[in-house]
């Protein structure tokens, strides 16, 4: 028996008898399509499998650029030859397009101001710490820069110097808010930053605060037991 299967069976036995799988017994819409369309869809599925095999993230299909790509392939029709690599001229053109977009984005800063967001992450391969900085305005969010903070003493003085440097890079007059996580050193640095730059408001990251609260809630015994049971079901369903 698969590990955890007995637990799943016990959980399932508690479900009401009326519980059923949504859509059970319905005809697969894929099979109701004409054979020609089935062949096309099968080809797309194989292409998707190849994307996943090449370590392209599953969320790539949710990209706004994915449907236009499929449409372009359909318009050209059979026989289209894909590029052998995406570097070189193709990548250079995309880089230039992104630069133009960023410049257009920056033109709105004097009018609307921006919120600077700090996001820390650990590279699990290189074991290095990074801090990403992203400016947000009604125009949208963009990537500004990434700082390697590995091996540094991450106290309040370190963070306030770094935050102040980033504010200078984008322009002091453009920044109206600075958002960081709620680590003690970041909280202290945020207060010091506001003392130095009176027009700027420092704010804790709501998402990080909620994440911490949910982690603590997850340690409550009854909640923890429920989550453990849910994980067992997930292992069976996605095995």
Please, what is the average pLDDT?
77
Main β sheet profile: 6 strands, mixed
Number of helices: 9
Using the 3D structure, state the CATH architecture of the largest domain. Answer: 2-Layer Sandwich
What fold name goes in the CATH topology slot of the largest domain?
Nucleotidyltransferase, domain 5
Low-confidence sequence ranges: 1-5, 15-28, 35-39
Pfam families: DUF659
Domain DUF659: 84-233
Protein name: DUF659 domain-containing protein
Give a brief rundown of this model.
This protein has 239 residues and is of the alpha/beta class.
Textual characterization of the structure:
With 239 residues, the chain is of the alpha/beta class. It folds into two domains: 27-82, no CATH class; 92-204, Nucleotidyltransferase, domain 5 (2-Layer Sandwich), CATH 3.30.420. It has nine helices and six strands; from the N terminus they run H-H-H-H-H-E-E-E-E-H-E-H-E-H-H. Strands 1, 2, 3, 4, 5 and 6 form a six-stranded mixed beta sheet that branches. Strand 5, helix 7 (184-196) and strand 6 (201-204) form a beta-alpha-beta unit. Helix 1 (5-13) crosses helix 9 (221-237) and helix 6 crosses helix 7 (184-196). 8% of the residues are buried. Pfam families: DUF659 (PF04937). InterPro entries: DUF659 (IPR007021), RNaseH-like_sf (IPR012337). Residues 84-233 form the DUF659 domain.
